[in-house]
Amino acid sequence: MKVYVVEQITEADYGCEDTGRKEPMALLKLRDLSPESEPEPIRYVELSEADISKQGIVEGKKVCFNAEGNIKKYVNVVAAVIYKNENGVEKIFATQRGYGDYKDGWEFPGGKVEPKETPEDAIVREIKEELDTDINVEEYIGTVEYDYPTFYLSMRCFRCTIESGSLILKEHEAAKWLKMDELDSVDWLPADIEVVKMIR
């Protein structure tokens, strides 16, 4: 999947009358971030101002094109699949989202990767911020790519254990330790359903 950074957003036309379009359009100047891109090519794309606003696309943010060729805001995140062994039974920590469009859905805790931050550093930082807990990142599980209605998600998932702390909920509204045969007992967010399939 090619990822681009939005270098500039300008008005593509001065109204709908001249183009026959029903809504004002904007012109996005995109720079290809692919490692093999030599020299970094520029791509121009027209997108309606309504779509830009709906997706929260702004200069400096990353975008990509989904399978249908539609431009989407690209969100690069990490997720911690936190394990513990309790009396010989393996359990996994799940959290219920407390904000945003997907409030009340269940997910594996984590968050966005900051510029110049490794995924491993990002997941350690996010869990400290969200749950006031230090974790050990034990292994990479896999990456989930999911095309949500208003953004495209790339989520790298890691198997983690607790080093210190007691998982204090700072952003989530609820949490549970689930045994492997209880994973279907909560309403997972769409991308997290794919994580559940990977860890089974």
Give structural notes.
The chain is of the alpha+beta class. It folds into 2 domains: 3-65; 75-199, Alpha-Beta Complex (Nucleoside Triphosphate Pyrophosphohydrolase), CATH 3.90.79.10. The protein has 3 helices and 11 strands. The chain has helices at 49-55, 119-131, 190-199, and strands spanning 3-11, 25-32, 42-48, 62-65, 71-86, 89-96, 106-107, 110-112, 134-147, 151-164, 174-179. Strands 1, 2, 3, 4, 5, 6, 7, 8, 9, 10 and 11 form an 11-stranded mixed sheet that branches. A hairpin with a 3-residue loop joins strand 9 and strand 10 (151-164). The radius of gyration is 20 Å and the shape is elongated. The two termini are 26 Å apart. 22% of the residues are buried.
Topology, pairings included?
Blueprint: E1 3-11, E2 25-32, E3 42-48, H1 49-55, E4 62-65, E5 71-86, E6 89-96, E7 106-107, E8 110-112, H2 119-131, E9 134-147, E10 151-164, E11 174-179, H3 190-199
Parallel strand pairs: 5-10
Antiparallel strand pairs: 1-2, 1-4, 2-3, 4-5, 5-6, 5-8, 6-7, 6-11, 9-10
